[in-house]
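FAQ: What does the model actually see?

It sees only this:
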Amino acid sequence: MEDYSLEEKDSFTVIGLGTELKSDYTDYAGINKEKSDFWQAVSQDGRLDYLKGIATNDYIFAVNEAVNNKMMHYAGVMTEAAAPEEARVIQFPKGKYLVVRGEAETADELNNKLAGLAFGQALPEAKDFAYVGGPNTTVEMGQRGGLVIGEMWIPVVRK
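And it is asked to produce this:
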């Protein structure tokens, strides 16, 4: 069951290790493959385990952010620890967020599903709010009944 709502969130910070996405922003298959390859790499080379080790909770963040006209994608966590040298400190503003909830068989599938619902359905249908840029994130929150559960958080403003 997927649903979405508008929620007020305090500002928060995610420490992320990232990659530049080279596919055109309209090439969803290319972008999804690049993200999937990146997650496979950080899972295998120990970077994701390192992040989990410094995290203040069990949430895993998949962050999308435009930085210096580049489309960036990060694996991140909330932490009080100092960021490793190659990491980016990603600031999410206090304010309203479109929150889309869902579940899927894998984290990769969850990320793609929630992004599709958020950008393909919820935002186009929105009459009262709009996404004006800034980082957005899929948050993997755990497992239930063999499925990965999570949410996508997109900062929005009232129209």
